[in-house]
Preprotein translocase subunit SecB (Pedobacter jejuensis), 150 residues
Amino acid sequence: MKIKKPKIDISKLSVTQIIPKTKSIVNDPVLMDIKKPTASFQLEMTPMFNLAEDAIKIELSVSIDLNKGKKLHAQVAVFSYDFYYQYNNLKDLLDEEGEIVSEIFLTCSNLSYSTLRGIIYSNSAKTCIENILLPIVTGTQLMEGAVKSH
């Protein structure tokens, strides 16, 4: 027997707060002189929820390593943010087994990550990561932590 999953109504979801925990870019002049650098990224995401408060929290951290060729050069940036969401009647997203549907976390993680990409981009002007963009990833990749170097 197939378990019926509730559908997400995006109109019930709102961002309530975005709180920066860490914003750090190492901007050493030596790093600015690297020609055609590549970067590797480490992402950590922790989704949480509180049914009583209809609240969802996504903790998202990104660290960026700058590479010269195939050699690891240095960790040059770390950004950690907490994203808070409100979903009107979050309990409506419980399936028949009483589990919250994972799609709400995919939705919130996609919103959080795309917002963080923009935050990092706007903070990177005239720094050693100015020409480095975080890769576009899916919510599933975020949930699984499967992000490769670019």
Notes: Residues 103-123 form the longest helix (21 residues). Residues 91 and 98 are 9 Å apart (CA to CA). The chain has a mean pLDDT of 85.
